[in-house]
Amino acid sequence: MDVFIGEWGNLLLRWAHMIVGIGWIGTSFYFIALDYSLNQQERKSPGVFGTAWQVHGGGFYHVEKFTVAPPNLPPHLHWFKWEAYLTWVTGFGLLIIQYYFHASAYLIDPAVMPLEPWQAIAISIASLLVGWFIYDGLCRFFGDRTVPLAASVFLLILLAAVLYTKVFSGRGSFIHVGAFIGTIMAFNVFVTIIPGQRIMVGQLLRGEEPEAKYGKVAKQRSLHNNYLTLPVLLMMVSPHYPFLSAHPHAWMVVALILIVGGLFRHILNRIDIGEPWEKYGWAAPMAAFALICAIFVTAPRQMADTGPVISDSEVLAMTAKHCTMCHARRPTHESFKEPPKNVTLETLADLKRYSQLIMIQTVRNKAMPLGNQTHMTDEEREQLGRWLRAH
Fold first, then answer.
1. pLDDT band at 302 (very low <50, low <70, confident <90, very high)
2. Residue 375: which domain range?
3. Which end of the chain has fewer CB atoms < 10 Å from its terminal CB, N or C?
């Protein structure tokens, strides 16, 4: 019953994470597109930077954006913040339920680094916080110098990826790159954007002239969030695709994902502005090339087919040692009451039936056993692969 309740808790929290995440991403995409579609030539009210006419759901909307702030605040001001806050809270909740409570299975791989659960959790929390402070320091140091700041943030994320791939399991490392980026994005809202807007509101209420610098910084951080959204989305679903983290230098895959996602977001933003293709078309072949490189890097390598094929009894003994604690009709692993995805590996017929899955998940990607808790060796994986190919 405890596992059943835990599964429901995981599902509901994941559902909530998706709901608020969609809301946050939607507002980010909308407001960046709105900024880029503003018409500065239309006759405007005093203090207005630009306007936009929009149609949606059978209604017409006329939107105005002030250069700094309106002369007087309306009685009702809508704040877009809870989507960001709740996305981070639910995401961190999932990190706790999935990776902290089951650190030995999902977060730690003894073949990468033998850690105690508390050590892995401490590294996780500390790295997320330290990453934010370094990012914030880079933004303050470089200011509005876009190119060196972008390069520095790119390198920061790559350094985090190298750290995670040297410390955590494959799935744990990639989900932490996503959490690292997501923490930067959420803290941008919580620590920088909303406090700056509150200062401007306070200045208006006191009859003072609002300082434009707070709006400028908020716009910069919002744009960072916009460009990081597509890479972080892929990182968050990466545990379902272990081939992404199977490469010995998986940080290269992270670099390519950042490039592809950032360039594609840049193309969409330029389209929203209405720029001619000649000005941003260069990004399309670069994104395509980076994507091809990512596919090439993650492609399965041909394994050596030399050596004797182990017997049926030996392969059953191997799966009994490494697989059936989870993949049995009655699993003995504490995290499961039913075999994951209803895959059982107790008989020769089971092994033949799921041979392709076993070859991908266990032999090539080394994603199974979970967290390599049973310390399956590379030699055993090769032996299993030879048996599967022979049958």
1. low
2. 312-390
3. N
Which of 220, 230, 223, 221 lies closest to 264 in space, CA to CA? 230
Q: What percent of the chain has pLDDT over 90?
A: 39
Confidence of residue 305 (pLDDT cuts 50, 70, 90): low
Q: CA-CA distance, 279 to 13, in Å (whole number)?
A: 43
105 and 32 inside one domain: yes
Is the residue at 63 inside a domain? no
Of 250, 266, 298, the residue at which a domain comes to its end is: 298
Domain presence at residue 341 = yes
Of 70, 68, 384, which Cα lies nearest the Cα of 217?
68
Please give the tally of structural domains in the chain: 2
Which helix (H) or strand (E) is 173 found in, with range? helix 170-187
pLDDT of 350? 86
Q: Are residues 240 and 363 located together in one domain of the fold?
A: no
Pair 169, 109: CB distance under 8 Å: yes
* Confidence band of 173 (pLDDT split at 50, 70, 90): very high
Confidence of residue 2 (pLDDT cuts 50, 70, 90): low
Q: Shortest CA distance to 221 belongs to which of 201, 200, 195, 202?
A: 195
User: Do residues 44 and 50 touch, judged by C-beta distance below 8 A?
Assistant: yes
User: Does 255 share its domain with 121?
Assistant: yes
Q: Write down how long the chain is.
A: 391
Q: Is-contact 239 265, C-beta < 8 A? A: no
pLDDT in tens, 220-255: 999 999 999 999 999 999 888 888 888 888 899 999
- What's the pLDDT at 1? 47
380 within some domain? yes
Q: What's the CA gap between 361 and 189, in Å, rounded? A: 38
Give the pLDDT score at 34: 84
Amino acid 291 reads L
Say if residue 150 is in the same domain as residue 274: yes
- Confirm whether 60 is domain-assigned: no
Stated pTM of the model = 0.86
Q: How far apart are CA 149 and CA 358, in angstroms?
A: 44
Q: What are phi and psi of 54, to 5 degrees?
A: -135, 155
